[in-house]
């Protein structure tokens, strides 16, 4: 890939994406420096998954552009550049079932390494399995695991080729509190650029200090620190991050301390 002359790893300029006739992302612009960590917040259906998939070059924007390491990423981008991006950016889907297809957990982790002609595959599989606390599952069928175990297998498969950027879509949705704590520690120790979508405001500050917020109209309505966001009631309301009940008339959240 060409050397990056500019001060960002990822840049999104006015990204717009449609599914058939309905808009999923509306004119989104932001940039990410190498090593930065961001949480992506927003209501159900606001476009978080779509944005992560665009960043992983699984979808291409209909308007605007994605720039990764100085390369414009779109349908016309060369196969070599796309291959490089897909090697360097790992994405964990919200539903691990869509990522798992090998007969054993070992094969599942080894798959991406084989595709990339990796040396010492066995050592790497054991190393990553240990990191993800799934060594005891290596001979099992990944399809017959619990939701949280599948999530860890999918994460191990993504971490095995040492990605530079990790995109995690609701990674804690299937995890118990202990495993959520383990994931926070694991991510903390990785030297990586991280974008992580979550609805869980209580753990968002454990992942990152910068937040991007999408509203229900698929606009990016906030790009700043989580600390500042906490005081932005109008933004929090637009993103369904606070609510009120019929019996309780003040806007509030349940899990942000
Ligand atoms: N395959 C699809 N076909 C048509 N519309 C889709 C498809 N996938 C997503 N959408 C629509 O695009 C919009 C953005 O969806 P997306 O999955 O990106 O939202 P999200 O913020 O990740 O939601 P959630 O928090 O519920 O996971 C929604 O209106 C959704 O209904």
From TrEMBL:
Keywords: ATP-binding, Cell membrane, Membrane, Nucleotide-binding, Translocase, Transport
Signal peptide stretch: none
InterPro entries, sorted: AAA+_ATPase, ABC_transporter-like_ATP-bd, ABC_transporter-like_CS, ABC_transpr_CbiO/EcfA_su, ECF_ABC_transporter_ATP-bd, P-loop_NTPase
Compartments in which it is found: Cell membrane
Recorded GO CC terms: ATP-binding cassette (ABC) transporter complex
Membrane topology designation: Peripheral membrane protein
KW Nucleotide-binding (keyword) present: yes
Principal location listed in the UniProt entry: membrane
Ranges of residues in domain ABC transporter: 10-241
SUPFAM superfamilies: P-loop containing nucleoside triphosphate hydrolases
Any Pfam family the entry gives: ABC_tran
GO molecular function: ATP binding; ATP hydrolysis activity; ATPase-coupled transmembrane transporter activity
Record's protein name: Cobalt/nickel transport system ATP-binding protein
Organism: Hydrogenothermus marinus
């Amino acid at each position: 890939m060409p050397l990056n002359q500019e001060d960002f790893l990822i840049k999104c300029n006015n990204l717009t994406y449609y599914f058939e006739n309905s808009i999923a992302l509306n004119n989104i612009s932001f940039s990410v420096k190498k090593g930065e960590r961001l949480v992506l917040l927003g209501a159900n259906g606001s476009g978080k998954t779509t944005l992560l998939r665009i960043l992983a070059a699984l979808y291409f924007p209909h308007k605007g552009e994605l720039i990764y390491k100085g390369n414009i990423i779109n349908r016309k981008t060369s196969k070599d550049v796309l291959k490089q991006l897909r090697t360097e950016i790992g994405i964990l889907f919200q539903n691990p079932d869509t990522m798992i297809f090998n007969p054993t957990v070992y094969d599942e982790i080894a798959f991406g390494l084989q595709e990339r002609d990796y040396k010492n595959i066995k050592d790497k599989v054991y190393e990553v399995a240990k990191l993800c606390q799934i060594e005891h599952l290596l001979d099992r069928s990944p399809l017959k695991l619990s939701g949280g175990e599948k999530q860890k297998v999918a994460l191990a498969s993504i971490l095995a080729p040492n990605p530079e950027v990790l995109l995690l879509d609701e990674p804690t949705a299937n995890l118990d509190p202990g495993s959520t704590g383990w994931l926070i520690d694991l991510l903390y120790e990785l030297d990586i650029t991280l974008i992580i979508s979550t609805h869980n405001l209580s753990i968002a500050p454990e992942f990152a200090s910068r937040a991007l917020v999408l509203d229900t109209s698929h606009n990016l309505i906030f790009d700043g620190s989580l600390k500042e966001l906490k005081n932005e009631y109008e933004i929090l309301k637009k993103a369904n991050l606070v609510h009120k009940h019929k019996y309780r008339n003040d806007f509030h959240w349940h899990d942000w301390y």
